[in-house]
Amino acid sequence: MGETDTLTPAPPLSVYDAARQVFAEQAAELRRYAKGARKGKDPEAVHQMRVATRRLRAALRALAGRVAAPKALRGRLLWLSRRLGAVRDLDVILALLRSERLPAAASGERARLARLIRKLEARRDKAQERLALALRRGRFEKLQGDLEAFAERPRIVGTDEPVAARVLATVSARLGDAIAEMAGMTQPAPAAADLHTLRIEFKRLRYALEFHAVACGFSYDTERRLAREMQDVLGEIHDRDLLLAWLDGGHGPFRGQWPALASRLTAERARLVRRFLRQRRAWQRRTRPEPLAALAEPRWSQLEPQPVTLRLVTGTKTVASTRIS
């Protein structure tokens, strides 16, 4: 390289380019796991396909007002997510019932538990048959084709071309601020419904933070980790709440009383709630507003793109900077 040669910084990623990358990655995930999900012998394939549909829907929500997707595409993603969810939910419950952490105390209840598992396995097989049929039909191929075409050329709304990092930082901040006000984050003993709603919002926040990382390559590392931990523990609580509700309802294969199983589930739920409360305090410490002079780290680390430099800032205080190259 000659003495007069210089490195030209790459421009900040636009919404158009960020959308292309996010949608293309998730479309590839759908195609990658479709065969395994269709055969039905790989629960992880079903799970990964479901995650891909959720990420795609979350991306459309995060970029609403900037990227316009065909209504039919949104509808097909919801349809596929529900088909996958019908199988995945039963996979999760069956894994929970088979776990060594949930032995039934009485021999009679253990025998009933074995029968319950067999009945749920049969229900899961039927849901798997419906999913396999859906993945073989033209509707899934149409979805896949439309999604890949959209990923290749997403339709941008408006005439300006905003910087993706700025748009997604705003979305992340809005979701984080909304979470801080939710009952699940403010009540000493949140209700099951409040924790379920909180889980959904943390999942949306986590995806928005991950899309932001795609757009700029760094930021929100601590918040992403904490959001994932919150989503995970809230998901485990929700799994037990769902199973406890089914046991309490006593319908179909759950008919009758399940004192030993319900007691073990309740104890596990209490342990998970204590873990959630610890993680909630960690989240609140990380995101609590403080005077600027007292800040050692950024609260919501806004990435403010400039023509040459991305700066990690909080309020008016520059925390770190990097040149785009």
Q: Could you say which overall geometry the principal axes of the C-alpha atoms support?
A: flat
CATH architecture of the largest domain: Alpha solenoid
Helix-strand topology string: HHEHHHEHHHHHEEE
Helix content: 55-70%
> Tally the helices: what do you get?
10
How many distinct domains? 2
- Which band does the percent of strand residues land in? 5-15%
Q: Structural class per helix/strand content?
A: mainly alpha
How far from one another are the termini?
16 Å
Largest sheet: 3 strands, antiparallel
Average pLDDT rating:
83
Uncertain segments are 1-5, 290-325
Radius of gyration over all CA atoms, rounded: 23 Å
Could you say what the CATH topology of the largest domain is called? CHAD domain
Determine the CATH superfamily of the largest domain. CHAD domain
Strands in their spatial order, largest beta sheet: 3-4-5
Describe the structure.
Helices cover 68% and strands 6% of the residues. The chain is mostly helical. The protein folds into 2 domains: 16-159, CHAD domain, CATH 1.40.20; 163-291. The model is unreliable at 1-5 and 290-325 (pLDDT under 50).
Features:
disordered N terminus; 6% strand; CHAD domain; 325 residues; two-stranded antiparallel sheet
Describe the structure concisely for a colleague.
The chain is mainly α and 325 residues long.
Topology:
Blueprint lengths: L14 H25 L3 H20 L4 E2 L2 H28 L8 H30 L1 H15 L2 E2 L7 H17 L2 H4 L5 H25 L4 H29 L9 H29 L14 E4 L3 E6 L2 E7 L2
Antiparallel strand pairs: 1-2, 3-4, 4-5
Helix pairs in contact: 1-2, 1-4, 1-5, 2-3, 2-8, 3-4, 3-5, 6-8, 8-9, 9-10
